[in-house]
Design a protein that fits this description.
It is a single chain. The protein is of the alpha+beta class. The chain has helices at about 10-30, 45-50, 60-80, 85-90, 100-105, 120-150, 200-230, 235-260, 280-290, 315-330, 365-380; strands at about 160-165, 165-170, 180-185, 190-195, 265, 270-275, 295-300, 345, 350-355, 385-390. It has 3 domains: about 10-115 and about 220-255, Orthogonal Bundle (MutS, DNA mismatch repair protein, Chain A, domain 3), CATH 1.10.1420; about 120-205; about 260-390, Rossmann fold, CATH 3.40.50. About 45% of the residues lie in helices and about 10% in strands. It is elongated and about 110 Å long.
C-alpha cells in the first residue's frame, strides 16, 4: 500500500517531483482530460501464482491481465499524444517497454467476455462442435419420444422437467414399464414417475464425457498460454508498478481538489510564507456543513524566526499552530496544500511539536514537567533547519 509507505522527506528534488506529479494530475482531472485508469487488477498476485512451472491462470485471471494491459497501453497512448505537456508524469514510464504482443497472444485464446474462444485450438473446436450436435440430438430425440408418449396417453399432467440434472418425462405410474428408461424421481403421491428415456440417457452420458474432454482441453490451452507468457512476468510486474504509482498520484490529486489545494513555490531554505492557509480537516468538515474556514497568513524567514500567537481562549491559536505544522508535513510528504498558489514553503530537516493536552504523565510527571522534558529534547536535537511548534508555552 503506497499510502502506508508515505513519509516526510527533506530532499528538494524528491519533494519537487512528487508535488509536480500531483499538480499535473490535478490539471488532467480539472481539464476533464480523457484519461481512464479505473480498470486494472492486482497483477502482482497473478504473476506470483505462475512463477512455478506447471501452474496456470484461469480464464478470468487472464482476462484481468488483458484488461489491465489495455489500461496500460491506453494511458501510454494518452501521454504520447500529449508529449511534454505532463513531463513529470511521463517520467513514470520513461524506460517502460511497450509489448503489445502479450495482448495478441491472450486475444488468440480469450474472448471479449473473458471466456475461452471455441476455436482456441483445433481439438477444442472439434469438441465444441460435437457438444453442439449432441445437444441438438438430445433435444430432437426427447421431443420425439415425449410426443409419442403423449399420443399413447402415458404422460401425466405437466411438461418435460429436470430431475437430478437430467431432462425427464412425467409418466403415470401405471405406464412406467411401457417407456424404456431410467426413473430419477417420483411424485409425493407416487402417481407420477419421472423417466429419462434410454436413448436420451446414452446421449446425455456422451454429452457429459464431451464436457469433461472440453474442460481438459481448456486446461491444456491455459497451461500452454501461461508457459508462453511466463517469460514476460518481469515486464508485467513493471506495468503493475506503473499503474499502481499512477493511481496513487491520482488519489493525491483528487484529495488536493477536495481540500482546494495548490502547489506553492518550493524553496530549499527553511522558511515559509503561507497565504490564505486553511486546515485541511476543517475544510472537509466545514464543506459538509456549508461553512467557510477563516484563512491565515504566516511568514517565517531568517529575519522573522519566531512567531508568537496570542489571543482569547477558543480563539483559534492551537488550530493556527496545527495548520502550520500539518501543512509543512503534508508538503514534505509530497502533498499539495490548501494555500494560495503564490505561497512559498521551504524544507525543514526536523519538525518538533508540543501541542494540546496529550502530554505523557505515565511517570507521574506534572504537566509542566512534561513540557520541560519536551523542551529539553527540542534543545538537544534542534538544528538551524528545525521548525518548533509549542502550544501553551510556559504554562
Amino acid at each position: 500500500n503506497m499510502v502506508q509507505k508515505m513519509q516526510v522527506m527533506n530532499r528538494f528534488d524528491q519533494i519537487d517531483k512528487f508535488l509536480k506529479q500531483t499538480n499535473e494530475f490535478k490539471s488532467i482531472i480539472q481539464n476533464q482530460e480523457p484519461l481512464q485508469i479505473n480498470t486494472f487488477f492486482d497483477l502482482k498476485s497473478l504473476i506470483e501464482k505462475i512463477r512455478v512451472e506447471g501452474t496456470y491462470l484461469l480464464e478470468d485471471e487472464w482476462f484481468q491481465i488483458y484488461t489491465s494491459l489495455q489500461t496500460v497501453f491506453s494511458v501510454l497512448r494518452f501521454f504520447e499524444e500529449r508529449a511534454e505537456v505532463y513531463p513529470t508524469l511521463e517520467a513514470l514510464f520513461e524506460h517502460l517497454p511497450i509489448e503489445k504482443n502479450i495482448l495478441r497472444k491472450i486475444e488468440n485464446v480469450i474472448d471479449a467476455k473473458g471466456k475461452i474462444k471455441p476455436n482456441a485450438s483445433k481439438e477444442l473446436q472439434e469438441i465444441t462442435a460435437s457438444i453442439s450436435k449432441t445437444e441438438q440430438d438430445v433435444r430432437k430425440r426427447m421431443d420425439s419420444i415425449y410426443k409419442q408418449a403423449i399420443a399413447n396417453n402415458w404422460v401425466a399432467d405437466g411438461s418435460l422437467t429436470i430431475r437430478d440434472g437430467r431432462m425427464c418425462i412425467p409418466v403415470l405410474a401405471e405406464n412406467k414399464r411401457k417407456l424404456k428408461g431410467f426413473v430419477h424421481d417420483e411424485s409425493a403421491t407416487g402417481q407420477t414417475v419421472y423417466i429419462e428415456p434410454e436413448e436420451v440417457f446414452t446421449l446425455n452420458n456422451k454429452l457429459r464425457d464431451l464436457e469433461f474432454d472440453k474442460r481438459r482441453e481448456i486446461i491444456k490451452i491455459l497451461i500452454a498460454l501461461t508457459d508462453e507468457l511466463r517469460p514476460y512476468s518481469p515486464l508485467l510486474l513493471s506495468y503493475h508498478g506503473f499503474l499502481t504509482k499512477l493511481d496513487f498520484v491520482r488519489a493525491k490529486a483528487m484529495f488536493a481538489i477536495d481540500i482546494e489545494a495548490e502547489m506553492p513555490g518550493l524553496l530549499k531554505e527553511p522558511k515559509t510564507k503561507l497565504i490564505n492557509a486553511r486546515h485541511p480537516l476543517l475544510l472537509l468538515s466545514f464543506a459538509a456543513e456549508k461553512k467557510t474556514v477563516t484563512p491565515l497568513n504566516i511568514h517565517i524567514d531568517a529575519s522573522t524566526r519566531v512567531v508568537l500567537v496570542s489571543g482569547p481562549n477558543a480563539g483559534g491559536k492551537s488550530v493556527c499552530m496545527k495548520t502550520v505544522g500539518l501543512l509543512q508535513i503534508m508538503l514534505q510528504t509530497g502533498l499539495l496544500i490548501p494555500v494560495d498558489a503564490n505561497s512559498e514553503v521551504g524544507i525543514f530537516e526536523n519538525i518538533f511539536a508540543d501541542i494540546g493536552d496529550d502530554q505523557s504523565i505515565e511517570s507521574d510527571l506534572s504537566t509542566y514537567s512534561a513540557h520541560l522534558k519536551k523542551m529539553r529534547y527540542f534543545v538537544e536535537h534542534a538544528s538551524p533547519k528545525t521548525m518548533v511548534l509549542i502550544d501553551e508555552f510556559g504554562t
